[in-house]
Amino acid sequence: MGKTTYLLGAGASANEIPIDSNLAVELKEFIKFLRKNENQLKNEDFQRFPGTNKFQTQTELINDLEDLAIKLSGINQQGKIDTRAYAIRNKETQFRKLKIAVTCFFLYLERKGGINPRYNNVMPAWIGDTLGNFRDDIRVLSWNYDIQIERAIGAQFDMDDFEDIQTKGNFYTKFQDPLIQDQGFEIIKLNGSATIFDGADRSKSFYFYYLSELKGEEFVEKICEAFAWLSSRRIFPGLSFAFEEFGQQELLKRVEYSIQNTERLIVIGYSFPPVNQHIDKKILSLIEPKYLEIYDFDPNSIRLRMNKLVTHISNSEVTEHEISRDSLYAPFPTPPLY
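The chain above was modelled as a monomer; its predicted structure follows.
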């Protein structure tokens, strides 16, 4: 029996995690939120981080976010954050600052929004039995560093511990051990996740679930504390862009073993931007799906981009689904039941 592989882009999470121009709007809203008088931190040290001033840390975070906003405004193509990251990939300090700023921004977005109904709705179709095990014939490749899928799994199985959620969904990023074997159902995060890694164990990441319960200044203080710890390298951002050489070969090898024998490829909200084309070409070259489904604002242009990357994709039986910007809530297609 062939596999069904989902390839997810930013459009898959769009109604909770904004894309393109809306992302820049939300970034400015985050900066405005941090600048509110009632959210200004005191001129004192963090209790758990002596020697690090709260107000100065907040100012540094705002400055880094404003710099990111300016740089993103000059990029007129999709995949703005990835494109900016690629441009400064060899400038270690700037590159690390971008990762930290993006992590803090996405923590804000996750706190502000809920779980995209698409992820909640597809969970029952991905589960293969009454015991709650995921189906062995499904694979998910996600370019997104949001944690919408993780949160949906947590809601489905009533889990709060982020490590338990990652185990349940069999998540893989560059930070996991590169087991080169087929593990059944698997979710591969090609760019990692906007989470935070423990400084002592890079294989353990976590998300501050309790942040959603904090208001105003309390939330700002926790975000700024995370920013301070990230900046001091005591904890680490979970982002690791696919184009980075670190772990790239292991990542691609894991992808190869995971998606081999894919019969049905479902592309949702992914535009195959130039910054990712090197990796996209390698991924598409690994499979020859009999069926290809594309869900996008302009699915025909996505098909043409895929054909330019690998010509054999034109042999697939293609179904194009045009999704208007007013129907971002359209559910994920579910795999056929055998």
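Residues 92-112 form the longest helix (21 residues).
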